């Protein structure tokens, strides 16, 4: 990662901490672990295809750090919570992440329109044909553990 990207990651972390005070983006027990979560997020970057959908994006992990690190890939951050979507939209705009789209929708409610057309295309048919990873925040594992598990297959 170059110096500019490192500065952008630090700015993202700063925004996350500032917004977390009023928007509950990260649980109190995880605040000190944000640098670890960012590092874990970046581990999977080399395995990703060109279009990545981050479902339940919340505080932007792993989507925003990956979008910073891989500006030639496109990221769609899907978040149904309006407060969290506001954070994502504000932060991606502030960080000039032109490779990132934020959708304030539930995944099952994605309908027609320019902003969702590419997401709908990717979700048709077999997901594994179009994605390396679909991110789901309810799992008890980290990307690092997922990679280790995949290597042991």
Overall description:
- By secondary structure, the protein is mainly α.
- It has helices spanning 3-23, 34-43, 63-69, 82-94, 114-123, 127-130, 143-151; strands spanning 51-55, 74-78, 100-103.
- Strands 1-2-3 form a 3-stranded parallel β-sheet, sandwiched between helices.
- Mean pLDDT is 82; it is low at 136-140.
- 48% of the residues lie in helices and 9% in strands.
- It has a single domain, classed as 3-Layer(aba) Sandwich (Rossmann fold), CATH 3.40.50.150.
| DSSP strand count | 3
CATH topology category name? Rossmann fold
Helix content: 40-55%
- Assign the CATH architecture: 3-Layer(aba) Sandwich
Could you name the ranges where pLDDT drops below 50 across 5 or more consecutive residues? 136-140
Radius of gyration: 15 Å
Number of domains: 1
- What is the CATH class? Alpha Beta
Mean pLDDT: 82
Strand content: 5-15%
The count of helical stretches stands at 7
State the shape: globular
Based on secondary structure, the structural category is mainly alpha
CATH superfamily: Vaccinia Virus protein VP39
Tell me the distance between the termini. 29 Å
Physical arrangement of strands within the biggest beta sheet: 1-2-3
- Major pleated sheet: 3 strands, parallel
